[in-house]
Amino acid sequence: MVIMNNIKSNLNLYKKMLLIRRFEEKAGQLYGMGKIGGFCHLYIGQEAVVVGVDSVKKKGDQVITSYRDHGHMLSCGMDPKGVMAELTGKKDGYSKGKGGSMHMFSKSEDFYGGHGIVAAQVPIGAGLAFANKYKNNQSVCFTYYGDGAANQGQIYEAFNMASLWKLPVVFIIENNQYAMGTSIDRASSTPKLFTRGEAFNIPGMLVDGMDVLEVSKATELAASNCRNGDGPYILEMNTYRYKGHSMSDPAKYRTREEVQNIKDKKDPLENFQKHLLNEGLDEDEFKKIDKNIKEIVSEAADFALESSEPDLADLYEDIYLDN
Amino acid sequence: MNSNEILMPALSPTMEEGGIAKWLVKEGDIIKAGDLIAEIETDKAIMEFESTVDCTISKLLVEEGTNHIKVNTPIVKINDDLNPLPIKNLNKENDKKNKPKKIINTQNDLHDIKFEKNENLKILTVRESIRDALAEEMRADENVFLMGEEVAEYQGAYKVSQGLLDEFGSKRVIDTPITEHGFTGLAAGAAFGGLRPVVEFMTFNFSLQAMDQIINTCAKTLYMSGGQMNCPIVLRGPNGAASQVAAQHSQDFAPWFSSIPGLKVIQPFSANDAKGLLKSAIRDPNPVVFLENEILYNDKSASSEIRDELIPIGKANILIEGTDVSIVSYGIGIKHSLMAIELAKDINISVELIDLRSLRPIDYKTVFESIKKTNRCITVEECFPVCSIGNHLSASIMENVFDYLDSPVINCAGKDVPMPYAKNLELAALITPEEIFEKIKKVTNWD
Fold first, then answer.
1. Rounded distance, CA A87 to CA A81, Å?
2. Integer Cα distance of A220 and A208 in angstroms
3. Closest to A321 (Cβ–Cβ): which among B187, B217, B285?
4. Which H or E run contains B235?
5. Which residues of B touch A123 (CB under 8 A)?
6. Percent helix, strand and coil across chain A, each rounded to 5?
7. What's the pLDDT tens digit per position in B174-184?
């Protein structure tokens, strides 16, 4: 029975990862068709990170991240239709069409954005953890940032306060190897990002971010550290982004072979599928899942395209909240 | 300077007078350089004051507990004879007829000019009224907390948060590291998480470090989230020029913050407005920038009767009614305007004085109605003259009540230079009552 439950929950992890991949592929298509504008940062390749972390999340735990945020929203249970409608700038989007790809939020799912300024979400995440501690509610804030953000000063300001005040925050570094076009070796004097909390007495761990079960295991440890009142934890997720930084990225900073090699050897979905097949799941099950996910994504795209543009009167709404 | 005297020292940039909280020596004591002489109450704190010379204390010139002693007033007579004085001399020094005399405060009290006295209402300084507003709101809502540099154990760099740590404890009155960018972002996160942070910037000059979090996070998240996520945060502290702290520490940021949709911006003058508006700011579900002024914290002209009322954000106040010209001002501009209006009285020009109090949203209606009556307008503010609040108001006045104007609107602001250090240059860089008086004459064609 335990084994069956395990397989069922593992299959859910796979479904979530597949949803993110198919959703992002569709978003890429819609961008190419001119249906999505502005900046659009796809999560393809990094799916195991957010799905693994969320497998540990409890009700009330918060998530906050940067602008590469579609995966985080889908994983935490936000409706793909609402996310896609926001990407297309429609009134049924999560931000009524006023946020776009980089700025989406869901209070009901405890997703606090979606932040467009590199690293700005990190002190905010520490602040959400501060509120948890103030209210003594046992919740943890999972605060994501990338290897590029890791060189911003405000992260170390947040580290200092999080450690000083023992805030329940897990700092999750999604090291996808490139900050836009600058590889980690060219940007970081100390590329072992998980060690950067040492000066603040924050423990850190390097995790294979392409393996959803490894991510889950590490996050469990980090989160219980927080829930025990021992303060923050750093997890460096070693991962890889298959697509460009944003849609306009020509990706001249790396070779096609490098990308292909990762896809062949480290793909988080393929490897996890193999693992599940070894556990005894049959291929038909995956075909069914694939079909189902494609339908969900296709419905989301249709919904987003059919939804109307925001009312012009909405331009002046939501600037201030009434008392 | 008499080397046989010790003078009341200036222990802060804005200190003009001080008090002897406690004598730590008595007449006849022999002291060494570095020994403590007295505890002196400044405009910011009670500070220990030590001798710079080896000497004998021959006479204490003021009584313990005396306040309002001007800087450079002799407070102790000393001599360099380091042998103990004969006992009879000591007795003589303590003779009744030689008792130190009280020094009377002579500071110009503008308070009488503008407010009617009501015996039932207490008069507080701006500093005290801000502290009271914080304390009352913290008592009313346990989610309200204060964070900033030196707000707790030090009791506030400018004594504003004095006593709050004792009443509310370190969970709610929180000393932060010197890390403006970090703690402003952290406070914004706490606000998203359901708390009501009040962030003190030691001065608003340091808020520049946190500008991204103020503008991009606090102000914009409600809009970017389609109305889901508000940021109920108050960002407060002294703003504008203090006294001889030079360019990096003297600047009025009112126009900067006021240009950002999503922020509310307040700059009070009187103690009553400071209290009523800060309470409104803390209860407001939006981010509010609350710009205080170090000079006004203790200023008699800004001290006022406290009427214990909430003052709505976005409502100007007509401080003085008049018929010939409208002065539209805010913050310390009101102090200078009040003095200029006294001068104008002598030449029979009747000035209406409007204290904007809130700079976003701005109370256009009150301004326009006043101009319809007086047909002339001067704006007075301390900020830089380019892209000032007055510039914006001039444009709005032209668009809306141009036909009522008998003369172009005159903007009176600080000079277009970084704040210099030297006293005379600093004075020249700031607005003065005399300048405002000249503009009053100009706009009314007085000659």
1. 10
2. 14
3. B285
4. strand B234-238
5. 181-186, 188-189, 213
6. 50, 10, 40
7. 999 999 999 99
